[in-house]
Amino acid sequence: MKRKLPFWLAPLTLSLAVTGGGTCFAQPGLVNPTEGERAEVAYATVNNLVATSILQNPIDLVDAQTDDSAEYALENAGSEAAEPGPKAPGRSAFSRIGIGVKVSTLGAGIEVGTPLAGKFNLRGGFNMIRYSRPITNNGIHYDGHLRFQSAEAHLDWFPFGRFHISPGLLFYNGNQVTATASVPGGQTFSVGGTTYESDPAAPVAGTGKLDFVKVSPSIMLGIGNLIPRNARHYSFLFEVGGAYQGSARVALNLAGNVCDTTAMNCRSVSSDATVQANIQDQQLKIQNDINPYRFFPVISFGVGFNL
């Protein structure tokens, strides 16, 4: 960088050149100058000094500014490149976690979700309900126990707004109904379309069970996002859909003795082929009654909170 000449030095030099110009003539050939020569030399000296003071300062200033700008650019280039712009909340994969509680036809449940990319979420949950009720059917008394428990996973796609389409899977379907069966002695009952009387000496008793395959595909439609794309931490959730669980599996096991309606000809349930065939027919009838629910309807209401 060039050495700067202070701007105030120009008028001082000009003053010295005019008032004390004799020193400028101490050069060879100008020992005894004429009056015209002194004027010419003084004029040239003033012009050179003024030009030097005026021109040198802007050039040096430009150089200094250029050097300072380059130095500043080098110092700040790294920091500017290292500072990325702000990201939209909840859009990067696994950046947030949402937790929801719900009530549905599968029972009371809890679920957890996280964003994947763009308009997709990944969500999983668990549902459970217990219920007991005694019923009587065809003269057989059942103490029934409803036990629903399931684990599910869904891929939520939001084509627009808060509306979502969610294909998924009940990867554990533990929904089932169990019952203990009994027929008091001397009371008639019907199995497979045939009427029998329970032997007072060995009354009929047994168990029943109804369940489904353990893995079931599902599809849900809904309103609400467990991971809102804005800064909200709470959300309300509603879904409707179903899980395809196939045909019900029914097992009815009876033991004891049965008699004709005249209380004659009593025999063991387990040893009589006709009675066993009637029990099989009864199982098939129950299965046919349940088959319309092979696509199990699911309606769900819930609320979610995300971190």
How would you portray this structure in words?
This protein is elongated. The model is unreliable at 1-31 and 37-90 (pLDDT under 50). The chain contains three helices and 15 strands. Strands 1-2-3-4-5-10-11-15 form an eight-stranded antiparallel β-barrel. Strands 7-8-13-14 form a four-stranded antiparallel sheet. It has helices spanning 9-19, 35-82, 273-290; strands at 98-104, 107-115, 120-137, 140-160, 163-173, 176-183, 188-191, 194-198, 204-211, 216-223, 234-244, 249-255, 257-259, 267-268, 295-306. The two termini are 57 Å apart. With 307 residues, it is α+β, with helices and mostly antiparallel strands. The relative contact order is 0.13. Helix 1 (9-19) packs antiparallel against helix 2.
Q: What's the total number of strands?
A: 15
* Main sheet overview: 8 strands, antiparallel, barrel
Helix content: 25-40%
Distance between the ends: 57 Å
Rg, rounded, reads 49 Å
Task: Give the strand order of the largest sheet, numbering strands 1, 2, ... along the chain.
Answer: 1-2-3-4-5-10-11-15
Low-confidence stretches: 1-31, 37-90
* Large-scale geometry: elongated
Separate helix tally: 3
Q: What's the average pLDDT?
A: 79
SSE succession? HHEEEEEEEEEEEEEEHE
Helix/strand-derived class? alpha+beta
* β-strand amount: 35-45%
